[in-house]
């Protein structure tokens, strides 16, 4: 081989070595950088490791470290275990989401951190959460116009027995929220924000668009130091970790309509609030499931927005399971400490929550209200959970007509439908008394009931919420 050929080969090898080193450094820079911001879609990609499925991309465990343990130390501890801190939950001091990079199961990773008793308060798997609904939850409905004097002109108001029960379709006259009387005092306020923690909301729906929250110009974009910056014009999607909370399931849109479909606009239905701002907090995806961490992340967003000046007073949560999470409880407690009421569905398993707890409705917190469902005869719905100690109040929840995806309307049943009625009445109270504390708000809601014999021994208040009484109308 000639000397010239030898030097050519040495030069080529040298170039390949240098190129590999440069590429390796670029990859290291990329892995250390903040998540990529997709400017065109105002969204942020979740950091992901290679060769992992979408489900595995979720952090495996939620760990709360003891006071005094700095975030820098937590990151070092995670690094030594070949884990990473996926997110620090700012609203709950010491709470982080840990992403295991070894493929170990959630239980093992949680146990590993829980064993650090000198540093860790608790560690738990990031459990899956999914919608818990009766088998006949949704039914497309042929809605008939029932025009009447002195009623809102929304074409399907006559089907909304929960707001005005005149005995239609086998109902019991008067078994409703006394909405007509309540509206004589207030129909709500655009100054009040209610967050729907669910599958998102179809914020383009003709009956919702006027009452959708839009981030004011004086409120900065949401920034999470671990996840990135979000142009959160319409709300937040913690499930996909992007700014756009558009509903692709329908459940959240149905709940939103109950709270705040625009009233007397000649379109569809009327919400219990004709005027309100609905903030979508999406943490459940198209299939109706998400994770505990996603729920916490969405609540953390809500708290941040409240701290930045958004008058967010109520979170409506129409979901739950028997999975107890101390981390989720801590996040809901933090919401209460920031003046936010948390209204939760009691569940749809026909079981006693005193004996078989259902979360988050069973968290014994000063800002939590648990809601059972009634049918149009004022009877406890056959699917509804109950509990004289742990379920606080009941509201209409069977055969409820509300908004659906694509400017449609649909009938649905569940404690999921009862919950936004209570959230909506709470918003009416705030509209009437803007400076009311979260403790007084909960107290006023629970004192606003019509006592019902069938609920005696079934729910704490023994009654159905009455919007007129909640506003002080006798």
Please summarize what this structure is.
The protein has helices at residues 3-32, 71-80, 106-114, 179-183, 251-260, 292-307, 326-337, 415-432, 438-446, 467-470, and strands at 37-38, 43-44, 61-65, 83-88, 95-100, 120-125, 128-130, 138-139, 188-198, 222-224, 228-230, 236-237, 275-282, 289-291, 312-317, 341-345, 368-374, 393-396, 400-404, 408-412, 449-451, 463-465. The protein is of the alpha/beta class and 474 residues long. Helix 5 packs parallel to helix 8 and helix 6 runs parallel beside helix 7.
Structure commentary:
The chain has helices at residues 3-32, 71-80, 106-114, 179-183, 251-260, 292-307, 326-337, 415-432, 438-446, 467-470, and strands at 37-38, 43-44, 61-65, 83-88, 95-100, 120-125, 128-130, 138-139, 188-198, 222-224, 228-230, 236-237, 275-282, 289-291, 312-317, 341-345, 368-374, 393-396, 400-404, 408-412, 449-451, 463-465. The chain is of the alpha/beta class and 474 residues long. The strands form seven sheets. It has a seven-stranded parallel β-sheet with strand order 12-13-9-15-16-17-18, with helices on both faces. It has a four-stranded antiparallel β-sheet with strand order 4-5-3-6, with helices on one face. Strands 8-20-19 form a three-stranded antiparallel β-sheet. A hairpin with a 6-residue loop joins β4 and β5 (95-100). The longest helix is centred in the first third of the chain and has 30 residues, at 3-32. The radius of gyration is 25 Å and the shape is globular. The protein starts with a helix and ends with a helix.
């Amino acid at each position: 081989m000639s000397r010239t050929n030898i030097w050519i080969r040495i030069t080529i090898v040298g170039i390949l070595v240098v190129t590999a080193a440069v590429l390796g450094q670029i990859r290291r820079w990329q892995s250390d950088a903040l998540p990529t911001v997709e400017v065109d879609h105002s969204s942020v990609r979740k950091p992901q490791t290679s060769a992992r499925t979408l489900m595995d991309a979720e952090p495996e465990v939620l760990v709360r470290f003891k006071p005094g343990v700095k975030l820098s130390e937590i990151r070092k501890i995670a690094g030594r275990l070949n884990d990473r801190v996926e997110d620090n939950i700012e609203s709950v001091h010491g709470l982080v989401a840990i992403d295991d990079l070894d493929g170990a199961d959630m239980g093992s990773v949680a146990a590993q951190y829980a064993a650090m008793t000198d540093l860790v308060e608790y560690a738990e798997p990031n459990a899956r959460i999914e919608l818990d609904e009766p088998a006949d939850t949704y039914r497309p409905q042929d809605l008939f116009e029932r025009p009447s004097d002195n009623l809102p002109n929304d074409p399907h108001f006559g089907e909304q027995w929960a707001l005005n029960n005149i005995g239609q379709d086998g109902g019991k006259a008067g078994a409703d929220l006394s909405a007509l009387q309540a509206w004589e005092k207030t129909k709500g306020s655009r100054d009040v924000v209610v967050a729907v923690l669910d599958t998102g909301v179809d914020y383009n729906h003709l009956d919702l668009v006027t009452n959708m929250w839009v981030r004011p110009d004086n409120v900065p974009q949401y920034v999470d130091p671990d996840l990135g910056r979000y142009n959160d014009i319409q709300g937040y999607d913690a499930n996909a970790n992007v700014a756009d909370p558009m509903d692709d399931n329908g459940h959240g849109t149905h709940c939103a309509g109950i709270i705040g479909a625009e009233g007397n606009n000649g379109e569809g239905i009327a919400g219990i609030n004709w005027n309100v701002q609905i903030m979508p907090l999406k943490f459940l995806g198209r299939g109706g499931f998400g994770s505990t961490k996603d729920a916490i992340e969405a609540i953390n967003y809500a708290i941040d927005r409240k701290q930045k000046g958004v008058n967010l007073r109520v979170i409506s949560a129409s979901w739950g399971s028997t999975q107890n999470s101390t981390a989720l409880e801590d996040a809901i407690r933090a919401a209460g400490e920031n003046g936010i009421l948390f209204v939760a569905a009691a569940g749809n398993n026909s079981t006693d929550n005193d004996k078989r707890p259902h979360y988050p409705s069973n968290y014994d917190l000063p800002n939590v209200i648990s809601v059972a469902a009634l049918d149009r005869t004022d009877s406890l719905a056959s699917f509804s959970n109950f509990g004289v100690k742990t379920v606080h109040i009941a509201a209409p929840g069977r055969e409820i007509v509300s908004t659906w995806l694509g400017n449609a309307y649909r009938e649905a049943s569940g404690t999921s439908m009862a919950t936004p009625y209570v959230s909506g009445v709470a918003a009416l109270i705030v509209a009437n008394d803007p400076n009311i504390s979260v403790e007084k708000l909960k107290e006023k809601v629970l004192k606003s009931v019509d006592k019902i014999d069938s609920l005696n021994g079934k729910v704490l208040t023994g009654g159905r919420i009455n919007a007129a009484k909640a506003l002080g109308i006798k």
